[in-house]
Write a structure and sequence with these properties.
The structure is a homodimer.
Chain A (H helix, E strand, L loop, with lengths): L12 H9 L5 H12 L15 H16 L3 E4 L5 E5 L9 E6 L12 H16 L8 E6 L7 H6 L5 H5 L8 H7 L19 E7 L4 H4 L4 E7 L1 E10 L3 E2 L11 H18 L5 E3 L3 E4 L5 E2 L2 E10 L2 H22 L2 E11 L2 E2 L2 H13 L4 E6 L4 H5 L5 E6 L15 H20 L2
Helix pairs in contact in A: 1-13, 2-4, 2-13, 3-4, 4-13, 9-10, 11-13
């Protein structure tokens, strides 16, 4: 692949034409389409367009109609991914793929996934309306069941297992039945797989789902990669005793130890510089009565970073603190790594540079950053040079009906996506 | 009552006889009876003689047989309490009552309650064998369902409500059906009530259930009262967000706030001198997933002390710390008092002095202390001058098959009980 990626920095061909013509995406149309898509699955507590639901089917039909409006030829692969293709000048070249997903979490919002899909369709629409013919074929993709475990992209990289298809989805159907329900063919799931080299590149536009871009007033996030994730199950053993008869200095209170642990995790993550995050998301105490000193606490740990080494180093720092806590509270901690964890998925350095150059050309500010959340793009890094473009999320809110991204920010991201596609097209 | 309590300090009458004859309780017999009682409900994970179970009925039958061996006349009151009576010289005098309970918690031990019952029976047995006739009638009581909420003693003070009788007990029967099952009459529950003045005094021998006496090598605990208990339900509201995309410094993590709260409670209880205790016994985080920052934590608080003022002061100190935690973690705490809470139930100062004098006479060391646990004695303080005698618990373990009190310590406590009964009998 590398030989094909001699980046041309001089202005010529479509990019030049593009620069001259200055055609841009249509912010009002994007907004109107996002709002229209949000109608499918709308409820008082958020959007319920979970994968494989009736609302999902309706949303997909709407998206297919938009593909047809952009003169894309539509097909649904064995995994239920919708693929809208536009031919290029050279049929021998591999397609540039871009897109995202339209399924959401229960009580979800209107921007996660949708911005990337409507943005991708806008790019296709603009090229169609301006009758721009580029070298490479283009494929707009709408991945199936992203929120259920990157199902569509997992199938596209040939790694969707039978076990994963037996899992129950939020729709109440198994993933297998769900794929069938949206027009895929789970019995021929291997047919959805692409080989390394089949695609020229993959691009995904997405809302940040964090508050960094908004807080720092930056227009575009250039995603360096999707962070790796490790999970641990944590057991803390103290000694359960009568809360009335056991003096304070005679206790082996597992919850007091747990409290020190939660603060130690927070402290380790905060005191080491970097963009890693560490979270204790669940906790329970046994026996769990107000009048009994907890003898046992079950809790957890999640650490995310772009570097697995950093994750392991942070975990080591937590363990160091835990040694002191064990001694001082007379308790014992056990950490068990929970499988499966996600490996860090770095994006392609050359694609990052092209996204940055596109932003600069559009006079937009940009910032390199990790994606703390998982995305279909992380699967696609296995298949093709991959890039991700983030746009600001107001208040950093995501997976919530309160999630919101401004019209201009979405338009900025879509313009960057379009220019990056064209820049990639120029690369021999 | 006070007029009747002119304490005679000179040696005369039975006490004098007692001092001369030096008759004592039989440690081997007490031990053998405790072990025999422990057979009813025995299991691999502890004793299962919960109130109203078949094992409870068998244990009660055994205890009744011991009452008869001591020539007590046995009756079962409307609440299922077993009362074994021994007449005194003066039938017009109110009886001195003493005893405890034989029901246990699920997976319980062999000493909680049983020591007080077998000890009380030993006192009756010794008086019977030595043909000692004292002035007051004596009543040995075995209260029903102590562990389920002091059911028997509550009925004896006329405060067992219909609601309390509708509660399901550990036996799988309602308290109402349970009382019927052991020979009581829930329809005539008021018949179990005694009036203030009906009893000369009430005494209960019990294991400490804490580790203070053992640690300080003290033979006898002179209980100053049963502590008051207040419970709070505590809600902590932060903001739930994506654990991957929300930087550490942008979080409103309710579990981090909860961790600081748990340590603040521990710190307040430890830094203020006194014998109060404070415990956080349960906790849960919402949504409770490893990959989501907890937006809400539900937890609790229990504070116990002999003085309600101290409880309120400690709670105020916790609230002061919580104000800082709220500000620094951007969370909001809500405390809701949980009804019913127990008021402190002080024992009678004159009875405490008699217990101390009895211990001294037997060359036993003693220490005044609160009872951190609830006991039938706390109800009885409403009815009669009440005293409680504690004996050491090895390791302070209670409500566990590991609970253990040494034979000699039980014998010491029983000797103190016997001498205190005789001292009370001397009081005009």
């Amino acid at each position: 692949m590398k030989a094909k990626w001699l980046v041309i920095t001089t202005c010529f061909s479509v990019s030049c034409l593009f620069g001259q013509v200055q055609f841009r995406v249509n912010p009002a149309r994007i907004e109107q389409r996002i709002l229209a898509l949000a109608e499918f699955g709308k409820s008082a507590t958020g959007n319920q367009r979970v994968a494989f639901s009736d609302a999902d089917v309706k949303g997909r039909a709407y998206v297919i109609s938009l593909m047809k409006e952009a003169s894309l030829s539509v097909r649904i692969d064995a995994a239920g991914n919708i693929i809208g293709r536009r031919e290029g000048k050279n049929a021998a070249l591999p397609p540039i793929m871009f897109g995202s997903h339209i399924d959401c979490v229960p009580n979800g919002g209107s921007y996660d996934g949708n911005v990337g899909v409507i943005g991708a369709l806008e790019c296709a629409q603009v090229l169609h309306e301006n009758k721009v013919l580029i070298l490479h074929p283009l494929e707009v993709v709408v991945f199936s069941d992203e929120e259920g475990g990157l199902i569509g992209s997992r199938a596209m990289i040939g790694m969707l297992s039978n076990e994963a298809m037996n899992v129950m989805s939020h729709s109440g159907k198994s993933v297998r039945d769900g794929i069938k329900f949206i027009g895929g063919n789970p019995d021929k799931i291997k047919g959805a797989a692409r080989k390394k080299g089949d695609l020229k590149a993959f691009l995904e536009l997405h809302i940040e789902q964090g508050g960094t871009l908004e807080a720092e007033k930056v227009d575009i996030g250039v995603v360096e990669g999707i962070v790796g994730i490790k999970w641990w199950n944590v057991d803390i053993e103290g000694f359960s005793n009568h809360a009335g008869t056991t003096p304070m200095d005679k206790r082996q209170d597992a919850l007091v130890a747990a409290a020190r642990y939660v603060l130690a995790v927070n402290n380790v993550m905060t005191r080491m510089p970097g963009r890693h995050v560490g979270t204790v998301g669940r906790i329970s105490a046994e026996p769990g009565a107000l009048n009994v000193i907890p003898g046992r606490v079950n809790t957890g740990l999640e650490i995310r970073d772009l570097s697995e080494k950093t994750i392991d180093r942070l975990f080591g720092m937590v363990l160091d603190d835990v040694k002191d806590i064990e001694q001082e509270t007379k308790t014992r901690f056990t950490f068990a790594l929970v499988e499966p964890t996600s490996e860090p998925a770095p994006t392609d350095e050359r694609v990052r540079s092209l996204i940055e150059a596109s932003a600069k050309e559009l006079r937009l500010t940009s910032k390199r950053m990790p994606s703390g959340a998982g995305h279909d793009a992380q699967d696609m890094t296995h298949l093709a040079p991959t890039g991700m473009i983030f746009v600001p999320s107001v208040g950093g809110i995501s997976h919530s009906p309160k999630e919101f991204t401004k019209r201009d920010d979405i338009a900025n991201g879509t313009n960057v996506l379009l220019r990056t596609i064209l820049r990639i097209d120029e690369i021999q």
